[in-house]
């Protein structure tokens, strides 16, 4: 199962990547495939032909895990 992650990189715009496994606390870098911005446009500092990137953990402020279509509906006890 691939994970879609939103990486918030120091002094840069966030980057969306797909990862084969969830990052562990002991990892020193994140290997991601198909890098793009949140609006699915190209990242200006990555060449257009690049399909896999490696980001060192020291450059990442935090990581957001994007929801996938496989997740089940969560019951919300309040009205929308």
Question: Which structural class best describes the helix and strand composition?
Answer: mainly beta
Using the alpha-carbon principal axes, give the shape.
globular
- Mean pLDDT, to the nearest integer, reads 88
End-to-end distance = 31 Å
Order of helices and strands: EEEEE
The CATH class, by name, is Mainly Beta
Instruction: Tell me the total number of β-strands.
Output: 5
Estimate nothing, just give the exact number of structural domains: 1
Q: What is the strand content? A: 35-45%
* CATH architectural group: Roll
Tally of individual helices: 0
Helical amount? under 10%
Uncertain residue ranges: none
CATH topology: SH3 type barrels
Strand order of the largest sheet: 4-3-2-1-5
Report the biggest beta sheet as strand number plus sense, adding barrel if it closes: 5 strands, antiparallel
What is Rg? 14 Å
């Amino acid at each position: 199962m691939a994970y879609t992650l939103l990486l918030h990189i120091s002094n840069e715009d966030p980057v969306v990547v797909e990862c084969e496994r969830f990052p562990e606390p002991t990892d020193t870098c994140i290997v991601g495939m198909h890098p793009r911005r949140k609006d699915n446009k190209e990242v200006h500092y990555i060449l257009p032909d690049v399909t896999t990137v490696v980001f060192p953990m020291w450059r990442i402020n935090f990581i957001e895990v994007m929801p996938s279509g496989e997740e089940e509906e969560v019951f919300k006890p309040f009205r929308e």
